[in-house]
Design a protein that fits this description.
By secondary structure, the chain is α/β, with parallel strands linked by helices. The protein is built from 7 helices and 14 strands.
C-alpha cells in the first residue's frame, strides 16, 4: 500500500490518495492502464490546489474508485464535488451524523470569506463495516467527538489507519465546536483506538504521522498510559 499526501487549504489539511501498485481499473483499455485508488478527505479549496491534485492524478495514471471522508468539516470535504465531476458517480462514504457538518459548512465559509463546497451525496458507514476498494480493505471505526459522525478507516493487513481529526501525533482533535464533545472524543480514543496494535501507523488529517504505540505512551491527552513500563513496552512494539 502506498499513500500520497497533499497539504491543502487554510488549515493545512491532508488530502490523501491510497493505492496498491498494479490495480488496473475495470474500465481502462489495454493501452491506457489506470491504477485504482481511494481518495481520503479531498480538501482542496482553490483552482491552484485543484490543478495540483488532478495533475498528480493524471501524471500517475490514478483513477479513484471511492472517496472516504473521516468527517464533514469544510477543510476535509471542499474538493469532493470536483472529484465527482471529474471521475463520475463513485461512492462517497461518511458517518451519517455528520450531515449536520455539511449543512454548517455554508455558514462557516460565508464567515471565512471562502468558497463553499459543492453539494454531494454520500452513503453512510457503520461501525465495524468493511469497505473494499482498489484492492484495499478498510474497517470502519466510528469515533464521534470532534464531530458527531467522525470515523477512522483501518487497513488491518497494511496496519495503516486514517484518523482524520480524532487522533493526531501528540494531541487530539479540538472539541470547542458546537457539535463537538470532549468526553465523547476521549471515549472514542480510549475504547476504540488506543488498544489497537502498537505498530499501526496513523495518518491524521493534519500534522505528522505517528503510531498507536507512540501515542499510547507519549500523547499528553492519554496520560493514564504514560507510565515508564508502558513506554518501554510500547516503543519496543513500535520498533
Amino acid at each position: 500500500m502506498k499513500i500520497h499526501i497533499f497539504t491543502f487549504n487554510l488549515f493545512r489539511e491532508h488530502t490523501m490518495v491510497a493505492y496498491r501498485d498494479g490495480m488496473k481499473s475495470k474500465s481502462a483499455s489495454d493501452d491506457a492502464e489506470l491504477k485504482e485508488c481511494v481518495v481520503v478527505d479531498p480538501g482542496f479549496f482553490n483552482d491552484q490546489e485543484k490543478q495540483e491534485f488532478f495533475k498528480w492524478m493524471d501524471d500517475n495514471e490514478k483513477k479513484p474508485v471511492a472517496v472516504l471522508l473521516t468527517h464533514g468539516h469544510v477543510d476535509h470535504v471542499s474538493g469532493v464535488r470536483d472529484v465527482l465531476d471529474r471521475y463520475g458517480d463513485i461512492p462517497v462514504r461518511m458517518g451519517e451524523a455528520d450531515t449536520v457538518e455539511i449543512e454548517n459548512n455554508i455558514r462557516i465559509c460565508t464567515k471565512l470569506g471562502i468558497r463553499a463546497p459543492g453539494l454531494f451525496g454520500f452513503s453512510a458507514v457503520c461501525d465495524g463495516e468493511i469497505l473494499e476498494y482498489a484492492g484495499l480493505r478498510f474497517k470502519v471505526i466510528t469515533t464521534p467527538g470532534h464531530s458527531p459522525g467522525g470515523v477512522c478507516y483501518l487497513e488491518e493487513e497494511e496496519k495503516v489507519m486514517f484518523t482524520g481529526d480524532t487522533l493526531f501525533a501528540g494531541t487530539i482533535g479540538r472539541t470547542d465546536f458546537t457539535t463537538s464533545d470532549y468526553d465523547e472524543e476521549i471515549r472514542s480514543i480510549m475504547e476504540k483506538l488506543i488498544f489497537l496494535d502498537g505498530d499501526i501507523e496513523i495518518y491524521p488529517g493534519h500534522g505528522d504521522s505517528s503510531t498507536i504505540a507512540r501515542e499510547r505512551c507519549t500523547n499528553p491527552f492519554l496520560e493514564p498510559f504514560n507510565e515508564k513500563e508502558e513506554l518501554e513496552g510500547a516503543l519496543s512494539e513500535d520498533r
